Protein backbone atom coordinates (compact mmCIF):
# COMPACT_ATOMS: atom_id res chain seq x y z
CA UNK A 1 0.00 0.00 0.00
CA UNK A 2 1.18 3.52 -0.79
CA UNK A 3 0.96 6.17 1.94
CA UNK A 4 -2.07 8.42 1.91
CA UNK A 5 -0.02 11.51 2.84
CA UNK A 6 2.07 12.72 -0.09
CA UNK A 7 4.45 14.98 1.80
CA UNK A 8 7.57 13.64 3.40
CA UNK A 9 9.40 14.83 6.52
CA UNK A 10 12.64 13.26 5.36
CA UNK A 11 14.05 12.50 1.92
CA UNK A 12 14.51 8.90 3.06
CA UNK A 13 10.70 8.58 3.38
CA UNK A 14 10.32 9.72 -0.20
CA UNK A 15 12.96 7.23 -1.38
CA UNK A 16 11.03 4.39 0.28
CA UNK A 17 7.83 5.55 -1.47
CA UNK A 18 9.68 5.87 -4.79
CA UNK A 19 11.28 2.42 -4.49
CA UNK A 20 7.90 0.85 -3.75
CA UNK A 21 6.38 2.48 -6.82
CA UNK A 22 9.25 1.16 -8.94
CA UNK A 23 8.77 -2.36 -7.58
CA UNK A 24 5.05 -2.45 -8.31
CA UNK A 25 4.90 -0.48 -11.57
CA UNK A 26 3.95 -2.64 -14.55
CA UNK A 27 5.72 -1.80 -17.77
CA UNK A 28 7.37 -3.36 -20.76
CA UNK A 29 9.57 -1.70 -23.39
CA UNK A 30 10.43 -4.04 -26.26
CA UNK A 31 12.85 -3.11 -29.07
CA UNK A 32 11.29 -3.80 -32.47
CA UNK A 33 12.49 -3.18 -36.04
CA UNK A 34 11.64 0.23 -37.40
CA UNK A 35 9.90 -1.43 -40.34
CA UNK A 36 7.59 -3.28 -37.91
CA UNK A 37 6.45 -0.30 -35.79
CA UNK A 38 2.68 -0.28 -35.38
CA UNK A 39 1.22 2.95 -36.76
CA UNK A 40 4.53 4.19 -38.19
CA UNK A 41 5.95 3.89 -41.71
CA UNK A 42 8.78 5.18 -43.88
CA UNK A 43 7.65 7.46 -46.67
CA UNK A 44 8.45 5.61 -49.93
CA UNK A 45 9.93 8.73 -51.56
CA UNK A 46 11.76 10.49 -48.71
CA UNK A 47 12.39 7.71 -46.23
CA UNK A 48 11.03 9.96 -43.45
CA UNK A 49 9.41 8.15 -40.53
CA UNK A 50 5.84 9.31 -39.90
CA UNK A 51 2.86 8.33 -37.76
CA UNK A 52 -0.31 7.36 -39.62
CA UNK A 53 -2.19 10.32 -38.05
CA UNK A 54 0.39 12.84 -39.27
CA UNK A 55 0.71 13.97 -35.64
CA UNK A 56 3.25 13.51 -32.82
CA UNK A 57 6.59 13.85 -34.67
CA UNK A 58 8.60 12.74 -37.71
CA UNK A 59 12.19 11.60 -38.14
CA UNK A 60 13.74 13.42 -41.10
CA UNK A 61 17.19 14.56 -42.24
CA UNK A 62 19.02 17.86 -41.89
CA UNK A 63 22.09 19.32 -43.60
CA UNK A 64 24.33 21.77 -41.72
CA UNK A 65 27.09 24.06 -43.00
CA UNK A 66 28.73 26.29 -40.37
CA UNK A 67 32.09 27.64 -39.32
CA UNK A 68 31.07 27.45 -35.67
CA UNK A 69 31.74 23.76 -34.95
CA UNK A 70 34.68 21.36 -35.03
CA UNK A 71 33.11 19.83 -38.17
CA UNK A 72 32.04 22.40 -40.76
CA UNK A 73 29.53 20.35 -42.75
CA UNK A 74 27.44 17.28 -41.96
CA UNK A 75 24.06 15.61 -42.39
CA UNK A 76 22.13 13.65 -39.77
CA UNK A 77 18.69 12.35 -38.80
CA UNK A 78 16.66 14.71 -36.61
CA UNK A 79 13.28 14.71 -34.85
CA UNK A 80 10.82 17.24 -36.25
CA UNK A 81 8.10 18.07 -33.72
CA UNK A 82 6.77 21.54 -34.51
CA UNK A 83 4.19 21.65 -31.73
CA UNK A 84 5.04 23.17 -28.34
CA UNK A 85 4.14 21.11 -25.30
CA UNK A 86 3.66 22.18 -21.69
CA UNK A 87 6.09 21.49 -18.87
CA UNK A 88 4.55 22.88 -15.70
CA UNK A 89 5.18 22.66 -11.96
CA UNK A 90 2.62 23.63 -9.32
CA UNK A 91 3.96 25.37 -6.20
CA UNK A 92 2.26 25.73 -2.82
CA UNK A 93 3.35 26.75 0.68
CA UNK A 94 2.68 24.32 3.53
CA UNK A 95 3.38 25.70 7.02
CA UNK A 96 5.47 28.46 5.45
CA UNK A 97 7.63 26.06 3.42
CA UNK A 98 7.48 26.06 -0.38
CA UNK A 99 6.64 22.70 -1.95
CA UNK A 100 6.62 21.53 -5.58
CA UNK A 101 4.13 18.99 -6.96
CA UNK A 102 6.00 16.33 -8.97
CA UNK A 103 4.99 12.95 -10.35
CA UNK A 104 6.75 9.59 -10.55
CA UNK A 105 6.37 9.01 -14.27
CA UNK A 106 7.40 6.18 -16.55
CA UNK A 107 8.91 7.08 -19.91
CA UNK A 108 9.93 4.40 -22.44
CA UNK A 109 13.49 5.72 -22.68
CA UNK A 110 14.15 5.93 -18.92
CA UNK A 111 17.03 3.73 -17.89
CA UNK A 112 15.37 3.06 -14.51
CA UNK A 113 11.61 3.04 -15.32
CA UNK A 114 10.32 5.92 -13.13
CA UNK A 115 11.74 9.41 -12.69
CA UNK A 116 10.31 12.51 -11.03
CA UNK A 117 8.58 14.62 -13.67
CA UNK A 118 6.86 18.01 -13.57
CA UNK A 119 3.21 18.26 -12.51
CA UNK A 120 2.36 18.40 -16.20
CA UNK A 121 4.60 17.01 -18.92
CA UNK A 122 2.68 16.75 -22.17
CA UNK A 123 3.03 17.43 -25.86
CA UNK A 124 0.21 19.22 -27.62
CA UNK A 125 -0.77 15.93 -29.28
CA UNK A 126 -1.02 14.41 -25.79
CA UNK A 127 -3.15 17.09 -24.17
CA UNK A 128 -5.41 17.44 -27.22
CA UNK A 129 -5.79 13.63 -26.96
CA UNK A 130 -4.80 12.69 -30.50
CA UNK A 131 -4.03 9.25 -29.04
CA UNK A 132 -7.68 9.01 -27.80
CA UNK A 133 -6.36 8.28 -24.32
CA UNK A 134 -7.07 9.77 -20.91
CA UNK A 135 -6.88 13.44 -19.97
CA UNK A 136 -3.65 14.94 -18.62
CA UNK A 137 -3.99 15.50 -14.84
CA UNK A 138 -3.71 19.12 -13.58
CA UNK A 139 -3.52 20.54 -17.12
CA UNK A 140 -6.20 23.13 -16.31
CA UNK A 141 -3.87 24.92 -13.88
CA UNK A 142 -1.55 25.84 -16.76
CA UNK A 143 -4.06 26.56 -19.51
CA UNK A 144 -6.14 29.05 -17.50
CA UNK A 145 -4.57 30.17 -14.22
CA UNK A 146 -6.74 33.23 -13.30
CA UNK A 147 -6.49 32.92 -9.49
CA UNK A 148 -2.97 31.60 -9.53
CA UNK A 149 0.27 33.47 -9.61
CA UNK A 150 2.49 32.65 -12.58
CA UNK A 151 6.08 32.66 -11.32
CA UNK A 152 7.71 31.69 -14.61
CA UNK A 153 6.47 31.27 -18.17
CA UNK A 154 8.77 31.01 -21.21
CA UNK A 155 9.11 29.03 -24.41
CA UNK A 156 12.35 27.10 -24.04
CA UNK A 157 14.32 25.06 -26.54
CA UNK A 158 14.94 21.33 -26.34
CA UNK A 159 18.09 19.44 -27.39
CA UNK A 160 19.23 21.17 -30.56
CA UNK A 161 21.44 18.24 -31.56
CA UNK A 162 18.42 15.90 -31.82
CA UNK A 163 15.34 18.13 -32.28
CA UNK A 164 14.64 20.55 -35.13
CA UNK A 165 13.47 23.89 -33.68
CA UNK A 166 11.67 22.15 -30.81
CA UNK A 167 10.32 24.24 -27.93
CA UNK A 168 8.19 23.62 -24.86
CA UNK A 169 6.37 26.09 -22.66
CA UNK A 170 8.07 25.99 -19.24
CA UNK A 171 5.79 27.20 -16.43
CA UNK A 172 5.83 27.51 -12.64
CA UNK A 173 2.42 28.35 -11.16
CA UNK A 174 1.84 29.18 -7.48
CA UNK A 175 -1.44 28.18 -5.85
CA UNK A 176 -3.16 30.56 -3.40
CA UNK A 177 -3.07 29.52 0.28
CA UNK A 178 -6.78 28.63 0.35
CA UNK A 179 -6.71 26.33 -2.69
CA UNK A 180 -6.30 22.67 -1.87
CA UNK A 181 -4.95 20.33 -4.56
CA UNK A 182 -4.80 16.75 -3.28
CA UNK A 183 -2.08 14.76 -5.06
CA UNK A 184 -3.32 12.03 -7.34
CA UNK A 185 -1.83 8.56 -7.45
CA UNK A 186 1.87 8.81 -8.27
CA UNK A 187 2.20 12.52 -7.36
CA UNK A 188 3.80 14.06 -4.27
CA UNK A 189 4.89 17.41 -2.82
CA UNK A 190 8.65 17.98 -2.35
CA UNK A 191 10.58 20.88 -0.81
CA UNK A 192 13.54 22.70 -2.33
CA UNK A 193 15.86 20.92 0.06
CA UNK A 194 14.44 17.50 -0.81
CA UNK A 195 14.78 18.18 -4.53
CA UNK A 196 18.39 19.16 -3.87
CA UNK A 197 18.90 15.80 -2.16
CA UNK A 198 17.44 13.99 -5.17
CA UNK A 199 19.54 15.95 -7.67
CA UNK A 200 22.62 14.55 -5.94
CA UNK A 201 21.43 11.04 -6.90
CA UNK A 202 21.68 9.53 -10.38
CA UNK A 203 18.60 9.38 -12.60
CA UNK A 204 15.87 10.43 -10.14
CA UNK A 205 14.85 13.95 -11.25
CA UNK A 206 14.09 13.98 -14.96
CA UNK A 207 15.19 16.51 -17.55
CA UNK A 208 11.82 18.24 -17.82
CA UNK A 209 11.69 18.94 -14.09
CA UNK A 210 15.25 20.27 -14.16
CA UNK A 211 14.59 22.68 -17.03
CA UNK A 212 11.39 24.05 -15.46
CA UNK A 213 13.01 24.61 -12.05
CA UNK A 214 15.86 26.54 -13.67
CA UNK A 215 13.29 29.34 -14.12
CA UNK A 216 12.48 29.68 -10.42
CA UNK A 217 12.55 33.48 -9.95
CA UNK A 218 13.83 33.61 -6.37
CA UNK A 219 17.08 35.59 -5.99
CA UNK A 220 20.32 33.69 -6.41
CA UNK A 221 22.67 33.53 -3.41
CA UNK A 222 25.13 36.42 -3.39
CA UNK A 223 28.18 34.29 -4.18
CA UNK A 224 26.40 32.94 -7.29
CA UNK A 225 25.68 36.38 -8.68
CA UNK A 226 22.50 37.67 -7.11
CA UNK A 227 20.53 39.67 -6.19
CA UNK A 228 21.24 42.57 -8.54
CA UNK A 229 22.82 40.19 -11.05
CA UNK A 230 23.31 42.81 -13.78
CA UNK A 231 26.01 44.68 -11.89
CA UNK A 232 27.61 41.86 -9.95
CA UNK A 233 29.66 39.99 -12.53
CA UNK A 234 32.85 40.51 -14.52
CA UNK A 235 30.62 41.81 -17.31
CA UNK A 236 27.38 43.78 -17.13
CA UNK A 237 24.20 42.34 -18.59
CA UNK A 238 24.46 44.83 -21.45
CA UNK A 239 27.96 43.58 -22.23
CA UNK A 240 26.83 39.96 -22.14
CA UNK A 241 23.94 40.60 -24.52
CA UNK A 242 26.25 42.54 -26.84
CA UNK A 243 28.68 39.59 -26.86
CA UNK A 244 25.84 37.20 -27.68
CA UNK A 245 24.54 39.43 -30.48
CA UNK A 246 28.04 39.75 -31.91
CA UNK A 247 28.36 35.96 -32.01
CA UNK A 248 25.10 35.58 -33.95
CA UNK A 249 25.41 38.59 -36.27
CA UNK A 250 27.58 36.96 -39.01
CA UNK A 251 24.79 34.42 -39.72
CA UNK A 252 27.41 31.69 -40.12
CA UNK A 253 24.90 28.86 -40.34
CA UNK A 254 23.19 27.29 -43.33
CA UNK A 255 20.65 24.62 -42.49
CA UNK A 256 18.02 22.82 -44.53
CA UNK A 257 15.78 19.84 -43.94
CA UNK A 258 16.43 16.98 -46.33
CA UNK A 259 14.81 13.57 -46.84
CA UNK A 260 16.03 10.97 -44.37
CA UNK A 261 17.02 8.82 -47.35
CA UNK A 262 19.56 11.50 -48.39
CA UNK A 263 21.45 11.62 -45.08
CA UNK A 264 25.09 10.69 -45.81
CA UNK A 265 27.10 8.31 -43.69
CA UNK A 266 24.03 6.66 -42.17
CA UNK A 267 22.37 3.35 -43.03
CA UNK A 268 18.79 2.10 -42.67
CA UNK A 269 19.17 -1.59 -41.87
CA UNK A 270 15.42 -2.25 -41.57
CA UNK A 271 15.83 -2.77 -37.83
CA UNK A 272 17.30 0.67 -37.15
CA UNK A 273 18.96 3.73 -38.69
CA UNK A 274 22.65 3.84 -37.70
CA UNK A 275 25.83 5.84 -38.29
CA UNK A 276 28.37 3.94 -40.40
CA UNK A 277 31.09 4.34 -37.71
CA UNK A 278 28.77 3.55 -34.80
CA UNK A 279 29.05 7.15 -33.52
CA UNK A 280 26.49 9.73 -32.36
CA UNK A 281 23.17 7.86 -32.08
CA UNK A 282 20.84 5.35 -33.72
CA UNK A 283 17.15 5.59 -34.54
CA UNK A 284 15.42 2.53 -33.06
CA UNK A 285 11.84 1.32 -32.60
CA UNK A 286 10.07 0.26 -29.39
CA UNK A 287 6.72 -1.21 -28.37
CA UNK A 288 5.56 0.06 -24.97
CA UNK A 289 3.11 -1.18 -22.34
CA UNK A 290 2.78 0.83 -19.11
CA UNK A 291 0.53 1.61 -16.18
CA UNK A 292 -0.31 5.19 -15.26
CA UNK A 293 -0.14 6.73 -18.74
CA UNK A 294 -2.87 8.36 -20.84
CA UNK A 295 -2.71 5.29 -23.11
CA UNK A 296 -1.64 1.83 -21.95
CA UNK A 297 0.09 0.65 -25.17
CA UNK A 298 1.84 2.36 -28.05
CA UNK A 299 4.78 2.12 -30.47
CA UNK A 300 7.30 4.76 -31.52
CA UNK A 301 10.77 5.50 -32.89
CA UNK A 302 13.44 6.71 -30.43
CA UNK A 303 16.97 8.11 -30.62
CA UNK A 304 19.54 5.96 -28.79
CA UNK A 305 22.89 7.75 -28.10
CA UNK A 306 26.14 5.91 -28.75
CA UNK A 307 27.49 6.64 -25.26
CA UNK A 308 27.19 8.67 -22.08
CA UNK A 309 27.71 12.39 -22.57
CA UNK A 310 29.52 15.04 -20.53
CA UNK A 311 27.87 18.37 -19.68
CA UNK A 312 30.07 20.63 -17.58
CA UNK A 313 30.69 24.17 -16.42
CA UNK A 314 34.17 25.34 -15.64
CA UNK A 315 33.86 27.77 -12.74
CA UNK A 316 36.11 30.26 -11.01
CA UNK A 317 35.96 33.07 -8.49
CA UNK A 318 36.21 36.55 -10.01
CA UNK A 319 36.00 39.62 -7.78
CA UNK A 320 34.60 37.54 -4.94
CA UNK A 321 31.81 35.89 -6.91
CA UNK A 322 31.55 32.53 -8.59
CA UNK A 323 31.42 32.64 -12.39
CA UNK A 324 30.77 29.94 -14.98
CA UNK A 325 32.33 29.76 -18.43
CA UNK A 326 29.54 29.90 -21.03
CA UNK A 327 29.91 28.79 -24.64
CA UNK A 328 27.90 30.24 -27.54
CA UNK A 329 27.03 26.95 -29.24
CA UNK A 330 25.51 26.15 -32.62
CA UNK A 331 23.44 22.97 -32.96
CA UNK A 332 21.89 21.22 -35.94
CA UNK A 333 18.34 21.98 -34.84
CA UNK A 334 18.66 25.27 -32.93
CA UNK A 335 16.13 27.93 -33.89
CA UNK A 336 18.83 30.64 -33.90
CA UNK A 337 22.50 30.80 -34.84
CA UNK A 338 23.59 29.91 -31.31
CA UNK A 339 22.44 29.52 -27.73
CA UNK A 340 24.31 29.94 -24.46
CA UNK A 341 25.59 26.51 -23.49
CA UNK A 342 27.81 24.84 -20.91
CA UNK A 343 31.59 25.02 -21.25
CA UNK A 344 31.58 21.39 -22.44
CA UNK A 345 28.67 19.55 -24.03
CA UNK A 346 29.43 16.37 -25.94
CA UNK A 347 29.68 12.59 -25.96
CA UNK A 348 33.43 11.88 -25.58
CA UNK A 349 33.14 8.53 -27.41
CA UNK A 350 32.21 10.40 -30.60
CA UNK A 351 35.73 11.87 -30.68
CA UNK A 352 37.74 8.70 -30.01
CA UNK A 353 40.59 8.54 -32.51
CA UNK A 354 39.95 12.04 -33.82
CA UNK A 355 42.80 14.59 -34.13
CA UNK A 356 43.17 17.10 -31.30
CA UNK A 357 41.79 20.00 -33.35
CA UNK A 358 38.49 18.11 -33.75
CA UNK A 359 38.05 17.48 -30.03
CA UNK A 360 35.78 19.90 -28.15
CA UNK A 361 37.65 22.67 -26.38
CA UNK A 362 38.07 22.19 -22.60
CA UNK A 363 36.84 18.57 -22.74
CA UNK A 364 40.20 17.21 -21.60
CA UNK A 365 40.42 19.92 -18.91
CA UNK A 366 37.15 18.67 -17.44
CA UNK A 367 37.92 14.94 -17.77
CA UNK A 368 41.38 15.26 -16.20
CA UNK A 369 40.32 17.53 -13.31
CA UNK A 370 41.62 16.65 -9.87
CA UNK A 371 38.73 15.37 -7.69
CA UNK A 372 39.36 18.23 -5.26
CA UNK A 373 38.26 20.67 -8.01
CA UNK A 374 34.90 18.99 -8.70
CA UNK A 375 31.93 20.77 -7.06
CA UNK A 376 29.41 18.13 -8.12
CA UNK A 377 29.44 15.09 -10.38
CA UNK A 378 26.16 13.29 -11.03
CA UNK A 379 24.54 11.33 -13.87
CA UNK A 380 21.15 12.49 -15.10
CA UNK A 381 18.93 11.23 -17.91
CA UNK A 382 17.70 13.21 -20.86
CA UNK A 383 14.09 13.26 -22.07
CA UNK A 384 12.83 9.67 -21.87
CA UNK A 385 9.90 10.24 -24.20
CA UNK A 386 12.11 10.52 -27.29
CA UNK A 387 15.58 9.31 -26.23
CA UNK A 388 16.41 5.75 -25.20
CA UNK A 389 18.78 5.41 -22.21
CA UNK A 390 20.28 8.84 -22.87
CA UNK A 391 22.49 9.79 -19.91
CA UNK A 392 24.87 12.65 -19.31
CA UNK A 393 27.46 13.21 -16.63
CA UNK A 394 26.74 16.66 -15.16
CA UNK A 395 29.72 18.40 -13.55
CA UNK A 396 30.88 21.73 -12.20
CA UNK A 397 34.69 21.94 -12.09
CA UNK A 398 36.91 24.62 -10.58
CA UNK A 399 39.12 25.94 -13.39
CA UNK A 400 42.89 25.81 -12.97
CA UNK A 401 45.36 28.50 -14.06
CA UNK A 402 45.40 27.10 -17.59
CA UNK A 403 41.90 28.41 -18.27
CA UNK A 404 42.16 32.12 -19.19
CA UNK A 405 39.87 34.96 -18.19
CA UNK A 406 39.65 35.87 -21.87
CA UNK A 407 38.71 32.47 -23.26
CA UNK A 408 38.03 33.42 -26.88
CA UNK A 409 35.17 34.94 -28.84
CA UNK A 410 32.81 31.97 -28.32
CA UNK A 411 33.28 31.81 -24.52
CA UNK A 412 32.60 34.31 -21.76
CA UNK A 413 32.52 34.30 -17.95
CA UNK A 414 29.28 35.24 -16.22
CA UNK A 415 27.72 34.56 -12.84
CA UNK A 416 25.07 31.85 -12.50
CA UNK A 417 22.68 34.62 -11.47
CA UNK A 418 23.28 36.46 -14.74
CA UNK A 419 22.74 33.30 -16.77
CA UNK A 420 19.60 32.64 -14.73
CA UNK A 421 18.29 36.09 -15.64
CA UNK A 422 18.89 35.42 -19.33
CA UNK A 423 16.92 32.18 -19.38
CA UNK A 424 13.71 34.14 -18.82
CA UNK A 425 13.88 34.78 -22.59
CA UNK A 426 13.37 32.23 -25.35
CA UNK A 427 16.29 30.80 -27.31
CA UNK A 428 18.99 32.35 -25.15
CA UNK A 429 20.06 29.52 -22.80
CA UNK A 430 20.03 25.93 -24.03
CA UNK A 431 18.48 23.02 -22.16
CA UNK A 432 21.81 21.56 -21.08
CA UNK A 433 22.88 24.84 -19.45
CA UNK A 434 19.47 25.18 -17.78
CA UNK A 435 19.82 21.69 -16.34
CA UNK A 436 23.29 22.49 -15.01
CA UNK A 437 22.02 25.70 -13.43
CA UNK A 438 19.34 23.76 -11.57
CA UNK A 439 21.98 21.36 -10.23
CA UNK A 440 24.19 24.25 -9.14
CA UNK A 441 21.35 26.12 -7.46
CA UNK A 442 19.46 23.28 -5.78
CA UNK A 443 22.50 21.32 -4.66
CA UNK A 444 23.84 24.44 -2.98
CA UNK A 445 20.40 25.02 -1.45
CA UNK A 446 20.64 21.54 0.03
CA UNK A 447 24.21 22.09 1.28
CA UNK A 448 23.24 25.35 2.97
UniProtKB/TrEMBL annotation:
Sequence ranges assigned to domain dTDP-4-dehydro-6-deoxy-alpha-D-glucopyranose 2,3-dehydratase in this UniProt record: 12-216, 238-440
Pfam families in alphabetical order: Hexose_dehydrat (PF03559)
Protein's name according to its UniProt entry: NDP-hexose 2,3-dehydratase family protein
Organism: Streptomyces neyagawaensis
Amino acid sequence: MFPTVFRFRQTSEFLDWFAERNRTHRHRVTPVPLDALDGWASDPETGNLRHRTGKFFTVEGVEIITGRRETRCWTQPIIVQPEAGILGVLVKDFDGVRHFLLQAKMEPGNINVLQMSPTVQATRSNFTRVHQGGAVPYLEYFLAPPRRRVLFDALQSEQGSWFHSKRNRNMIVELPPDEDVPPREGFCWLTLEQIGDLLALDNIVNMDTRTVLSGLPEPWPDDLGGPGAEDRGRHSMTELLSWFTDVKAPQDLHRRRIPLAEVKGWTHTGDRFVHEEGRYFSVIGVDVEADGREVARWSQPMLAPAGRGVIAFLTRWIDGRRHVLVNARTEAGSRDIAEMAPTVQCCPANYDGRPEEERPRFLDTVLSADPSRILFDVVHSEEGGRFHHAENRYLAVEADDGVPLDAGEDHIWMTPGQLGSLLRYSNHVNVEARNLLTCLRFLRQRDR
